[in-house]
Amino acid sequence: MMKGIVKKFPGVVANDHVDLFVEKGEIHAVVGENGAGKTTLMNQLYGLLKPDEGEIYIFGKKVSFSGPGDAIKHKIGMVHQHFMLVNNLTAFENVVLGMEPRKGIFFDRKRAREEVKKLSEEYGLFVDIDAKIEDMPVGMQQRVEIIKTLLRGAEILILDEPTAVLTPQETKELFEILRKLKQSGKTIIFISHKLNEVMEISDRITVMRQGKATGNLITSQTNPREIARLMVGRDVVLTVEKTSREPGEVILEVQDLWVKDNRGLDAVKGVSFAVREGEIVGIAGVAGNGQTELVEALTGLRRVEKGRVLFRKHEITGKNPKILRDFGIFHIPEDRLRRGLVTAYPAYFNVILGRHMMFPFSKNGFLDHKEIRKFAEELFERFDVRPRNVDLPAENFSGGNQQKLIVARELSFSPKLLIVAQPTRGLDVGAIEFIHRTLLSMRDSGVGILLVSMELDEIFSLSDRILVVYGGEIMGEVKPEETTMEEVGLMMTGHRLEEIRR
Ligand SMILES: Nc1ncnc2c1ncn2[C@@H]1O[C@H](COP(=O)(O)OP(=O)(O)OP(=O)(O)O)[C@@H](O)[C@H]1O
Ligand SMILES: [Mg+2]
Questions:
Q1: What is the rounded CA–CA span in Å between residue 69 and residue 67?
Q2: In angstroms, what is the span from residue 192 Cα to ligand 2's centroid?
Q3: Termini Cα distance of the chain
Q4: According to the model, what pLDDT value does residue 101 have?
Q5: 36 lines ligand 1 (CB under 6 A)
Q6: Rg (CA), the chain
Q7: Residue 344: nearest ligand to its CA?
Q8: Which of 84, 127, 231, 264 has the fewest CB atoms below 10 angstroms from its CB?
Q9: CA-proximal residue: ligand 1, atom 28 (nearest)
Q10: Ligand 1 test: best mutation among 7, 39, 427, most atoms within 8 Å of CB?
Q11: CB count in 10 Å sphere of residue 444
Q12: How far is the CA of 34 from the centre of ligand 2 (A)?
């Protein structure tokens, strides 16, 4: 239980007298818009931040944490919005990092392994414990994080937007795990922007808006509409109008493209397609079927093994990102922390990243900070990045607002071709609506857009054509108005369109 929690940052009251009552053995959802204060609240429960005011009680006992170590002692575990695993270690090494059980003075690997194995079987957390983190799909990385908390004795588990990065299948598996954890008496705090998930998995819900707790609901007695209203203070409609439009010339052409993954295996196997001006081509598929490698190859971040990429008939195969930008090709990456932001730098610098050497931001080799700030302030206003503080380091923005920063930057370059991966991951409903409208208006003004997304709803409502990938190949091409979710779903699991329609 948290009572009257106040947490201020310079210029923002992130938590304003928030009460959170969580009962033992329940799954408690915390929802709210980007920047509402959810992560901040949880970071205080996990000892990462100290409340300015308020009290925290764990199993009825008043506590005061001066670090996560204290929280762990009180059986609290947290899986963060951005994972904190060490990429080049194995799952097992990550799990035991910092808590190696000792046998004499030596690290007892054998015992630790057995414990990890026991835990993962008990809760259905199947994890290849000898694989390196960087070679794992995110769903599995997340399970490693969960095992890590369980091994440290967690009875209360905080999961900050665990499903934002998961495929529908992985989400289903995670929910199975959460149910098992609940059955065994564990308490779970679950943060999500997806109200259907909240309805499915939670027992009770705390709603936050602008730092305050605005609602305390019993899931079985509420509905998504009511939750959304408490979140944003008004009714929300989640539909965007797409006008029909004749696309123009071919702007991107991909011919028989082959790309390898990190392990040196073929990830993209002879893919060919085209994107025209004023058209959104959606790539649907379960994560891990070559989309990431395809996007990286097209944006100059990964080697092309074979095949060609043409931009308006110019060969651009294997060109570096800087040259591609000069052509007018921009990219919204799926991994915002690794590829999208220099997190320790102020936001105003991050929004010009990639063109900081250009006029008007750079004059005679010096950055014109005043000019850049002015530009950043305009972008913040247009894209509703909160808080409106361009001097704040990128890392101090909430997860969703970091994403808005990147989207704002890339869309403001006046792109000719946009390669967009998971653009609305971690965004609240209002922000999703805004990004969708912006992408559609860019399409209407003639920009060619390649959209990779795991959200089928997003693919359906934005795309003019949908390509479905499976195992690094295209299973078929369909138009959203001429297909169904079922048909696309079948292709996503490896059935070719010709087979299905035969
Ligand atoms: N270290 C910090 N320094 C300054 N401001 C911060 C810091 N951490 C968070 N904030 C601010 O506190 C507010 C709440 O952020 P928080 O991360 O808790 O939001 P959230 O509800 O988790 O949002 P999201 O859904 O986008 O993840 C935001 O305005 C954010 O910019
Ligand atoms: Mg957050």
A1: 5
A2: 9
A3: 58
A4: 54
A5: yes
A6: 23
A7: 1
A8: 264
A9: 35
A10: 39
A11: 12
A12: 7
Q: List the structure tokens of 301.
A: 């971040």
> Could you tell me the strand order of the sheet in which 187-191 lies?
76-79, 156-160, 187-191, 27-32, 204-209, 212-218
Ligand with smallest separation from the Cα of 35: 1
CA 355 to chain centroid, in Å, comes to: 25
Two tokens, residue 17 = 């007298």
CA-to-CA dists, residue 202 to 58, 219, 336, angstroms: 20, 6, 28
Could you give the CA distance from residue 169 to residue 174 in angstroms, rounded to a whole number?
Answer: 9
Of 381, 380, 320, 311, the closest CA to residue 352 belongs to 380
Per-residue tokens: 408: 């704002």
Strands 465-470 and 280-284: parallel
CB atoms within 10 A of CB 150: 22
> Does the Cβ of 171 fall within 6 Å of ligand 1?
no
Residue nearest to atom 22 of ligand 1 (CA): 39
Distance 305 CA to ligand 2 centre (A): 38
CA neighbor of 330 nearest in space, from 354, 307, 350, 314 = 354
CA of residue 32 to ligand 2 center, whole Å: 9
Helices 109-122 and 138-151 sit at what angle, rounded to 10 degrees? 110
Q: What are the angstrom distances between the C-alpha of 437 and each of 233, 383, 384, 433, 458?
A: 21, 12, 14, 6, 12
CA distance 397 to 20: 23
pLDDT in tens, 76-134: 999 987 777 777 888 888 887 776 555 554 556 777 788 888 888 888 887 888 888 87
Distance in Å, CA 40 to ligand 1 centroid: 6
> Hey, what domains does the chain have and what are their CATH numbers?
2-232 (3.40.50.300), 248-328+419-502 (3.40.50.300)
CB 64 within 8 A of CB 227: no
Quick one: which ligand is closest to 402's CA? 1
Nearest ligand, measured from the Cα of 192: 1
**77 pocket-lining for ligand 1 (C-beta < 6 Å):** no
Q: Is the CB of 32 under 6 A from ligand 1?
A: yes
Token pair 């960087």: residue: 134
How far apart are the C-alpha atoms of 295 and 321, rounded to whole Å?
A: 12
Tokens of 400: 């969703």
Verify whether ligand 1 is closer than 6 Å to residue 9 (CB atom).
yes
pLDDT digits (tens, 9 = 90+) for 242-301: 888 888 999 999 999 999 998 889 999 999 999 999 999 999 988 789 999 999 999 999
How many other CB atoms are there within 10 angstroms of residue 465's CB atom?
A: 17
